[in-house]
Request: fold
Amino acid sequence: MKLDVAIIGGGPGGSTCGSFLKKYKPTLKVGIFERESFPRDHIGESQLPVISSILHELGIWDKIEAADFPIKVGGTYRWGKTEDLWDFHFLPNGIFDEKPRPGKYEGQRLETAFQVDRAVYDKILLDHSRDLGCDVYESTGVREVQRDGDKVSGLILEDGTKVEARHYIDATGHVGLLRRAMGVEIDEPSTLKNVAFWDYWQNAEWAVTLGIGGTRIQVMSVGYGWLWFIPLSPTRTSIGFVCPADYYKKTGLKPQELYNRAIQDESRIRGLVKNATAEGKFSTTKDWSFVAKRMAGENWMLVGESAGFADPILSAGLSLTHASGREAAFTIIEMDRGGDKQWLRDEYFERNKRRIYQHIKFADYWYAGNQHFNDLREYTREIARDAGLELDAEKAFQWLGTGGFIEEDLGIGGFGTLGFTALQQVANRLSDEPAKSAFGGYNGFVLNFDGAKKCQVPHYEAGRVLPVPAWSRNGKVLPLSGLIGYLVKGLESNPAINSALVAMERDLRKVGIRYDRAIHDGAMQCLEALIRDGWVDCRKYKTGEVLPGELPAENSFFQVNHDASLPVGRRSASLVESD
Reply:
């Protein structure tokens, strides 16, 4: 079998890659080889809004919306310094309008996500790849990866068929079939060695119903681990329990016994499943974080969890998978177009490595900041010590930002999938000392490029990988694009912040962008990132008001849980009873 691109694995990473290849270069002959027959269950059901934009670009958002998955508008947590519940909203104050479904990718739906039943979701994605022209082979495992040095020379399928292609994609998840065959080593940077146990439940109550079809996932810590509660449909819910492997071994309990105990120990989840029934599909896995030391070779690339995995506490798994599948496809198309192959491969690796490391580091921070782990306090202290982390917010920011707080395609300063405003609110929840803005008390910001070198970073758009001018220094990169690019240009014209923002407003107006409150807030997050990454030196000029330093205890995206104020019928009956 002769192909342009052979993709091993038909999950979201493989199907996303295949679909983008066919969308932007329909003449490519693409084969996807999946060892299982879809539909099949899989964990990793809670999404982040960034995925919706990828689904929209793929032309599949309407198909996913038509499946009537619950709309994720945020999460409710018991985590951090107190027993209080707190909410993380994707939308201001968590207000989700009553809009009929199926809806369009517009308005508030630009900022929401889905909670997906992977048996249904993955099949929609794979069928879409087939509709776009990929040759999809289900129930077709790869028996052998043949190699010649750092080049894959072919695949041998289970039936003996040989597949030859110009490019190969490993989208086999934790199995890492091609990764292992090519001898790629992995790094396990975290002391976090967790195990996960889960099952699916019928007729569990939703904690809340927001708008039409909207809800929040529940992430509840117990004294020895944490539970996830993710509604997947009006009747089906994924409930899982995560704890350190060492703790599980010390209990002497069987996995299902520990799982059942955790559910009974958490009153909120216990109430939601009071009238529910487990499907009996109980499963276990180890979810140890890792990063592949290489993600691309002469004619191969790693996508999704074959390239690395971060603890599921941040719901980032599918975001990382979809993004890497998209960027791998764009990279192949750009290489075929004559682009610099080594630069394209190197940038793909560096970008995805940084993302995974960020989420691993952030997960360590979350665990180290959870004082509810009564039985595991020494363990969380060990996480903090090994990471060089103190729970003072400023020292935590220094540690988190060793790889930089600027992500090219976020368009703002932040970390992982969070902008700085959200990141600071998390720090307030997890740290002993509240976070403060880096720009507080100053009104002048002088750009500092001493020792920096000019370089280029990739921007992935419409099937292209476009080089964007940037500065690099000490492993940190400053792309001169997006909102950060406009702010840098403003500061170049005048380091006094008020004058710089006026210049920024003028430049944005030239391209038809109105400088509103959202743009201003984004500019302030960019400024925070520029300072913390060392691209700006702060000054206090005699004229002009200084910027505030104190941050609010909460904002419209992070708040103490107010579910008790919801109308009757919008809250679970069990939660109403418990009040």
In short: The chain has 17 helices and 27 strands.
